């Protein structure tokens, strides 16, 4: 099965048996690409005029549906899986590089410039003459070094999926004097952005002697708006002490052809793209276009999301800082609630689709009585509801603290379909303010229905926790990510994201980063630890619990079998 990247806004004309033509649209934030039941099997063929990266005719088409997308997604890409077993493979398609070995070993390798540009010259790595590295016993990463995705395995089970280990290689594919690098930041802010920028610049300059580094101002739009900033170690010397990004950022603005034209016109041959899942998806399309043109350009991603919702990697940079800063708001809410009769402190934290910040901040605080996240539905009234639990805690303790993620309870407060379909420039669903809404509902319930006076204080630090500089832990992490990205680009790797997997820096193919969203598993031990800490109810009836358990078992089974999701085939068997 060959994977084809389907960019935003692509219509795929398909001809079926009954001579009718249908078009399907790949777009942001869809739950699945095609809304067709797996029972309705229809045979399709893709004509050569479809224009999907100049593909030739395919005998069959199927679209992969991952049940883990059921809560929606902001990915700017989906993968259309096409069966080309009976047709010639298109030279414009980039196949996943899969290497297998004994014992069920699987390496999901990343692309290399030599895959599509033959006879590239190589050069000795300048690090071998770098005095700073003279104390290192082993300068370079061995070519066969890989990192397992799962470190917990059964004795008779397969070794599983591995990723290429990050680090400097003995030979590099760029002469230092010919390197012209650029850095761009996209999407929302996150602690550590400036640290990553600084360490990319300093890594290129001090480790490899690269002098030409540009900053693209204002996100993807900056490529074709001709906004650039010269970067060198002096310019970026102390930017890690500031929040935000010195390059500016924006959402949307991704025009693949204009961006690649700009890269080609400027003579840029290393592109470092810092952003979340949507941004990394855009980077994947840029890489595909660069590869199609045969350009010697390395495209490297550094994953960034304050919600920690990027899959595969251990965590995203800035997450520790965000959790630490959230503690200040929770502590303030606890002081306010504890200082008055029937006091309730309500804190809203970031977490559009994934409640990691709220969960970890709650576990770290130990002052929180209830944590509400998008992955765990809840209800307000009735037995076992939120109001009943608040009443119970107020009677027992006289006060309580509630932490709620911004994406929690959206189905309860959305009263119109239109409000659920509005999106921002990145394709993310525009959320209503659940904090203000639930604050008012709690006040109305206790003062009007129960006739119990309460004192509720609402604290919203959502944007405060992402606008601060990164803490010491995240600064170190950002340094490792940035330097690993530089090593990979100089070694000729491209089309990858630099990320931490099981405590080791790795190079991960773009398609693994954008294929799904990382989310809190409410049938997992970590969520159980939170419930034990807060003593809150699960807000799940018995049936819901069984269904969630079944989904998780199915998800684990699919992962162990090496598949990323269910596949709803549109092909009837011959």
UniProtKB/TrEMBL annotation:
It catalyses: beta-D-fructose 6-phosphate + ATP = beta-D-fructose 1,6-bisphosphate + ADP + H(+). It holds the Pfam family PFK. GO terms for cellular component: cytoplasm. Allosterically activated by AMP. InterPro entries: ATP_PFK, PFKA, Phosphofructokinase_dom, PKF_sf, PyroP-dep_PFK_TP0108. It is an enzyme of class 2 (transferase). The active site is at 307 (proton acceptor). Pathway: Carbohydrate degradation; glycolysis; D-glyceraldehyde 3-phosphate and glycerone phosphate from D-glucose: step 3/4. Its EC number is 2.7.1.11. The record marks 278 as: Important for substrate specificity. It is found in: Cytoplasm. GO terms for molecular function: 6-phosphofructokinase activity; ATP binding; metal ion binding. Keywords: Allosteric enzyme, ATP-binding, Cytoplasm, Glycolysis, Kinase, Magnesium, Metal-binding, Nucleotide-binding, Transferase. Mg(2+) binds at residue 277. Its main location: cytoplasm. Substrate binds at residues 305-307, 350-352, 406, 463-466. Its cofactor is Mg(2+). HAMAP family: Phosphofructokinase_II_X. Catalyzes the phosphorylation of D-fructose 6-phosphate to fructose 1,6-bisphosphate by ATP, the first committing step of glycolysis. Homotetramer. Belongs to the phosphofructokinase type A (PFKA) family. PPi-dependent PFK group II subfamily. Atypical ATP-dependent clade 'X' sub-subfamily. This is ATP-dependent 6-phosphofructokinase. It comes from Gossypium anomalum. The lineage of its organism: Eukaryota, Viridiplantae, Streptophyta, Embryophyta, Tracheophyta. The gene is PFK.
């Amino acid at each position: 099965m060959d994977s084809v990247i389907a960019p935003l806004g692509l219509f795929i004309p398909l001809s079926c048996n009954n001579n009718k033509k249908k078009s399907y649209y790949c777009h942001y934030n869809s739950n699945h690409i095609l809304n067709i039941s797996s029972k309705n099997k229809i045979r399709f063929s893709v004509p050569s005029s479809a224009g999907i990266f100049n593909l030739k005719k395919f005998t069959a088409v199927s679209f992969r549906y991952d049940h883990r997308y059921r809560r929606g997604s902001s990915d700017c890409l989906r993968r259309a899986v096409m069966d080309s077993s009976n047709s010639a493979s298109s030279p414009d398609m980039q196949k996943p590089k899969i290497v297998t070995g004994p014992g069920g070993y699987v390496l999901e390798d990343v692309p290399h410039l030599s895959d599509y540009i033959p006879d590239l010259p190589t050069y000795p790595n300048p690090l071998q003459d770098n005095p700073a590295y003279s104390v290192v016993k082993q300068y370079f990463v061995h070519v066969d070094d890989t990192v397992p995705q799962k470190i917990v395995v059964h004795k008779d089970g397969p070794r599983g999926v591995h990723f290429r280990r990050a680090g400097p290689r003995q030979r590099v594919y760029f002469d230092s004097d010919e390197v012209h690098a650029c850095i761009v930041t996209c999407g929302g802010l996150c602690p550590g952005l400036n640290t990553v920028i600084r360490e990319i610049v300093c890594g290129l300059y001090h480790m490899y002697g690269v002098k030409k580094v540009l900053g693209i101002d204002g996100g993807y739009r900056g490529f074709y708006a001709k906004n650039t900033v010269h970067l060198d170690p002096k310019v970026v010397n102390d930017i890690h002490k500031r929040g935000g990004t010195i390059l500016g950022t924006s959402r949307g603005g991704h025009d693949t052809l204009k961006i690649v034209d700009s890269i080609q016109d400027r003579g840029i041959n290393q592109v470092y793209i810092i952003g979340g899942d949507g941004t990394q998806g855009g980077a994947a399309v840029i890489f595909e276009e660069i590869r199609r043109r045969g350009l010697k350009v390395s495209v490297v991603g550094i994953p960034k999301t304050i919600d920690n919702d990027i899959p595969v990697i251990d965590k995203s940079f800035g997450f520790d800082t965000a959790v630490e800063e959230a503690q200040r708001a929770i502590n303030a809410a606890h002081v306010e609630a504890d200082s008055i009769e029937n006091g309730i402190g309500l804190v809203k934290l970031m977490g559009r689709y994934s409640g990691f910040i709220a969960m970890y901040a709650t576990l770290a605080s130990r002052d929180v009585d209830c944590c509400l996240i998008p992955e765990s539905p809840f209800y307000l009234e009735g037995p076992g509801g939120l109001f009943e639990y608040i009443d119970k805690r107020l009677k027992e303790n006289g006060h309580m603290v509630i932490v709620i993620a911004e994406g929690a309870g959206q189905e309860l407060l959305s009263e119109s379909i239109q409000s659920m379909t509005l999106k921002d420039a990145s394709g993310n669903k525009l959320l209503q303010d659940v904090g203000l809404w639930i604050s008012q509902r709690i006040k109305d319930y206790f003062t009007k229905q129960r006739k119990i006076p309460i004192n509720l204080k609402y604290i919203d630090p959502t944007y405060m926790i992402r606008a601060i500089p990164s803490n010491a832990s995240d600064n170190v992490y950002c340094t490792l990510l940035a330097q690993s990205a530089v090593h990979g680009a100089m070694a000729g790797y491209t089309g990858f994201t630099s990320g931490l997997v099981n405590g080791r820096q790795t190079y991960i193919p773009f398609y693994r980063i954008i294929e799904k969203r990382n989310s809190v598993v409410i049938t997992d031990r970590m969520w159980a630890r939170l419930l034990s800490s807060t003593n809150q109810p699960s807000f799940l009836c018995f049936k819901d619990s069984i269904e969630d358990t079944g989904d998780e078992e199915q998800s684990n089974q699919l992962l162990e079998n090496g598949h990323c999701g269910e596949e709803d085939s549109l092909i009837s068997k011959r």
